């Protein structure tokens, strides 16, 4: 099998060994969950329950507000104890629904199989996906029904599933493909039917040969779906890089995948679509890799949305040593957490506990103008210049140098011999430019 890739990128240590061969375990039922109403890109959901209400698993508790939004459902049965702002993954306090579980695990009456894929119409599947609160489960959390609703002038002909899982440490998608490959394929077929496309791809990195073999067998009866082997390289799972590797289409600067006829989703998202169609259960739990040298027992856990980091630590036997850093997601693009009270969300693909040795960042030195950041940048921008403009508050210049094209993979910071945090400066510039554009639009 030949392996495909993109230009640029890096090869950080994988650190996947602690969990790559561990089967998915169902986490212990939580006593309390804190479910944020903002755990997706777009407008936050609006609470439709009140303090004192009794809720069941799968019951909608937050209604989507606007097109780019997503409903939220209860992951436990129990009583709503509070609706208040709580710490969130983003670092901000977010309005959340606090539910005390009753241990009965009662499922809401609305949760029931939706029918066979062959019998469902495209519009029906799209509505089911929307009402189930399904979002991108690779970490981006973009509402899936929005992705699957391209404007009439965008002629989409291909859907690609990201099974690369290129971030170090993370193995949740790997285990998902090994253990439930039929759900990944079923979900992909459902999404292809929604959009009306005939061609589907599943991209998997070469460091997962077992997953490639399993998924090839799973698609054997579907000649319009192809498993694509990808070179193990970061950020192989980024949308534009994955599109180039699989179908050799380049997404122009400032444009979206649908502008070249492609939609990209995560394998976990596809599996959730399948689960929802088959059982009616909305997105109320997800697979999360728990790893890092500070945690005693690394695991791949099926965790209910709203469970606290503290509960997961207990599930994994506690700490070897007090962690120096806790990261939600992967080490390259994940977000450091300021405490262990934060709840896991729909996008929590990883939960990493780093020792001081793992988390230590070297001191910055002066740029030696080696050009390595430009050479490896998968977005073909000049990180060193954008960072310099941002630090000197020259945001217009940063915009001219295409700061918004940065995919925030962190490859530039990783490869920099002077250990300059280039990504931090670029993020600052992006936030300024986006805020300016929003103000102008208003």
TrEMBL record:
Transmembrane segments: none
Amino acids binding [4Fe-4S] cluster 1: 367, 370, 373, 416
EC numbers: 7.-.-.-
Pfam families the record matches: Complex1_51K, Fer4_10, RnfC_N, SLBB
Topology within the bilayer: Peripheral membrane protein
SUPFAM superfamilies: alpha-helical ferredoxin, Nqo1 FMN-binding domain-like
InterPro entries associated with the record: 4Fe4S_Fe-S-bd, 4Fe4S_Fe_S_CS, Ion_transpt_RnfC/RsxC, Nuo51_FMN-bd, Nuo51_FMN-bd_sf, RnfC_N, Soluble_ligand-bd
Chief site of localization: membrane
Cofactor binding comment, as recorded: Binds 2 [4Fe-4S] clusters per subunit.
UniProt keyword list: 4Fe-4S, Cell membrane, Electron transport, Iron, Iron-sulfur, Membrane, Metal-binding, Repeat, Translocase, Transport
UniProt GO MF annotations: 4 iron, 4 sulfur cluster binding; electron transfer activity; metal ion binding
Record has Phosphoprotein as a keyword: no
Domain 4Fe-4S ferredoxin-type: 357-389, 397-426
Gene3D superfamilies in the cross-refs: 3.30.70.20, NADH-ubiquinone oxidoreductase 51kDa subunit (3.40.50.11540)
Family indicated by similarity: Belongs to the 4Fe4S bacterial-type ferredoxin family. RnfC subfamily.
Function, in words: Part of a membrane-bound complex that couples electron transfer with translocation of ions across the membrane.
Assembly notes: The complex is composed of six subunits: RnfA, RnfB, RnfC, RnfD, RnfE and RnfG.
Protein name per UniProt: Ion-translocating oxidoreductase complex subunit C
Lineage: Bacteria, Bacillati, Bacillota, Clostridia, Peptostreptococcales
Gene name, Swiss-Prot/TrEMBL: rsxC
């Amino acid at each position: 099998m030949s392996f495909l890739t993109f230009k640029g990128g890096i090869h950080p240590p994988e650190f996947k060994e602690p969990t790559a061969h561990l089967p998915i375990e169902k986490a212990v039922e939580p006593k309390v969950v804190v479910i944020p109403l903002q755990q997706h890109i777009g407008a936050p959901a609006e609470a439709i329950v009140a303090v004192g209400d009794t809720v069941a698993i799968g019951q909608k508790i937050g209604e989507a507000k606007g097109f780019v939004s997503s409903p939220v459902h209860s992951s436990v049965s129990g009583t709503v104890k509070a609706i208040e702002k709580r710490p969130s993954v983003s670092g901000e306090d977010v309005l959340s629904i606090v539910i005390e579980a009753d241990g009965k695990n009662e499922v809401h009456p609305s949760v029931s199989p939706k029918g066979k894929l062959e019998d469902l119409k495209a519009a029906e599947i799209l509505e089911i996906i929307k009402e189930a609160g399904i979002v991108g489960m690779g970490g981006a959390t973009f509402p899936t029904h929005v992705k699957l609703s391209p404007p009439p002038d965008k002629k989409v002909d291909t859907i690609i599933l990201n099974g690369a899982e290129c971030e170090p440490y993370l193995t949740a998608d790997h285990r998902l493909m090994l253990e439930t490959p039929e759900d990944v394929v079923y979900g992909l077929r459902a999404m292809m039917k929604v959009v009306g496309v005939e061609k589907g791809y599943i991209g998997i990195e070469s460091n997962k040969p077992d997953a490639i073999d399993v998924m090839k067998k799973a698609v054997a009866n579907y000649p319009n779906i192809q498993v694509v082997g990808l070179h193990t390289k970061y950020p192989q799972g980024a949308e534009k890089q994955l599109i180039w590797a699989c179908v050799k289409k380049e997404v122009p600067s400032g444009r979206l995948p649908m502008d070249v006829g492609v939609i990209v989703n995560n394998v976990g998202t596809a599996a959730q679509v399948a689960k929802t169609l088959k059982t009616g259960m909305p997105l109320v739990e997800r697979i999360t890799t728990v790893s890092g040298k500070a945690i005693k027992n690394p695991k791949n856990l099926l965790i209910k949305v709203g469970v606290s980091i503290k509960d997961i630590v207990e599930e994994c036997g506690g700490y070897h040593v007090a962690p120096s850093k806790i990261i939600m997601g992967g080490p390259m693009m994940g977000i450091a957490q300021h405490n262990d009270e934060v709840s896991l969300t729909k996008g929590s693909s990883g939960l990493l506990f780093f020792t001081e040795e793992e988390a230590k960042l070297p001191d910055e030195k002066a740029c030696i103008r080696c050009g390595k950041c430009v050479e490896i940048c998968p977005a073909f921008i000049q990180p060193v210049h954008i960072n310099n403009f941002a630090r000197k508050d020259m945001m217009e210049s940063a915009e001219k140098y295409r700061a918004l094209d940065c995919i925030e993979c962190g490859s530039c910071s990783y490869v920099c011999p002077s250990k300059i945090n280039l990504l931090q400066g670029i993020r600052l510039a992006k936030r300024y430019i986006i805020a300016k554009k929003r103000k102008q639009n208003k």
